[in-house]
Write a structure and sequence with these properties.
Blueprint (H helix, E strand, L loop, with lengths): L7 H21 L9 H15 L3 E2 L12 E4 L2 E3 L14 E10 L2 E10 L5 H19 L7 H14 L3 E2 L5 E3 L6 E5 L16 E4 L2 E3 L5 E3 L7 E3 L5 E3 L2 E5 L4 E3 L9
Antiparallel strand pairs: 1-4, 2-4, 3-12, 4-5, 6-10, 7-8, 9-14, 10-13, 11-12, 14-15
Helix pairs in contact: 1-2, 3-4
Length: 257
Amino acid sequence: MKVLIKTAEELERMRVAGRLAAEALEMIGPYVEPGITTGELDRICHDYIVHQQKATPAPLDYHGFPRSICTSINDVVCHGIPSDTRALRKGDIINIDITVLKDGYHGDTSAMFHVGETAPHLQRLVRITQECLYKGIALVRPGTRLGDIGHVIQQHAESNHYSVVREYCGHGIGRGFHEEPQVLHYGEPGTGLELVEGMTFTIEPMINAGRRHVRLNRRDGWTVTTRDGRPSAQWEHTLAVTADGVEVLTRRSDEDF
């Protein structure tokens, strides 16, 4: 499959979808408190996206996914399914992953949240993972290769004694939830696809405190956990390659790009 270069009109629609995804993620933050279930977080986001934003939560029924957002707690790497029985506990970390579909285009983003006071080692993991994302974004411009992005993420994670998940990666995005190219979070500089203006894709590093190996829950077919039970963190943005750099389509109000 080829990489789809977006027109100016398509980019404008993606700006709208990206802004809505960012706003939904900001909206849910204050609800992340001890005692709330991930199912309740899912319902709040679903109602906000459908009724306030007049948009569609893209994960719902995507290849059979049963909920509107992903909620990945502690050792869950990605694709955690919201549950009416899993209440957040003080000391948890949680990734909330939101994808909004508006007027045929997707905006995809995720962030980490601390539930009450968390341990210093978890705070460090969350911070370093966000730095990995930002270092990758800083390289996005025409002429950069995907291997350059993967390399800087891998180097920063491993220099801080963490590991990079290799089974899951960033992806092209637009009309399709998942398009080409695949955006690996490890690699060698100077290798891979060269970026050109009009490309749109996500960077979403999944960084483990322990070993990089993961396990897919065979019962639900979605939930991915670290094999060693150590915690994992992830941050994600949807990006567009511009003539001279990058536009972060899912930028939140507390970020300066």
